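User: Teach me something about this protein's shape.
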Amino acid sequence: MQYRTLGKTGLKVSQIGFGASSLGGVFHDFDEQCGLETVFTAIEAGINFIDVSPYYGYYKAETVLGKALKDIPRERFILSTKVGRYGENGHNTWDYSARRATESVYESMERLHVDYIDIINVHDIEFADLRQVADETLPALVELKRKGIVRHVGCTDLQLENLQWIIEHMPEGTIESVMNFCHFCLNDDKLIDFLDFFEAHGVGVLNASPFSMGLLTYRGTPDWHPAPQPLKDACRRAADLCAQSGYPIEKLAMQYSLSEPRIASTVFSTTRPENLLQNIAYANEPIDWDLVGKVKQLIGNQQRVSWANT
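Assistant: First, the predicted structure itself:
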């Protein structure tokens, strides 16, 4: 496993990060014991970066993850969770107030069985009033950092422009890391355009969803996927091309997402140990850049076609 330094935090994170969203049953039902074994397998394989949120499974992901973390020495993992986006009884909720952000951190620590959070993020800021995030949410998290409850402060969003805006409107050094998803993968490399900006501000970069939420898999997207149909069709053709080449698109997608050294870690989620180990094995093999070129050519004018968050 390779490790990269996350911005100016000093944290050395594994280039593959474990996303715990699947432990909330976000994508499909799962066997909890198998999910817990996946966490232990990740740690044993050298993955030290774990990302979760109270939103995933409406608190379930943090609760299940906490069952594993209580049996893992704290120094073996770097833990990232979030505030601002929640839900209950099948309904999404949002609350970016300072009071709720502070309460949420303590609630997450209780569910996760930890006494501090390595990285606390404002979750999906496109759903927030960005001015409130700047004036209220982030100052509350900075205060928790001052108290030693959290070590570092970050933001996550699908829209890169929002991440840029919030960095530009906060005192330098407030935001220490950002997590963006679906913008450094085979069908969309827009994140590259922002790396110089993040680096200039000392902000570490985390990438999520190397499979673009199922677009870059042979199985294809779930029914709820928000991508437009022409993009889905283009990625389906790309998956078929990879299959004909004897090179799974999942392998190419993972390798491509790990290929940019300025991205500290790429996060993906699974509840199956064998799937986790397979993706780690992919990372240790050389990428077929010729096939990357063919896939990108096949995706064609659907490159960088994005969608609204949901």
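Now, about its shape. The longest helix spans residues 130-146. The CA atoms of residues 7 and 183 lie 19 Å apart. If you'd like, I can walk through any region in more detail.
User: That's plenty for now, thanks!
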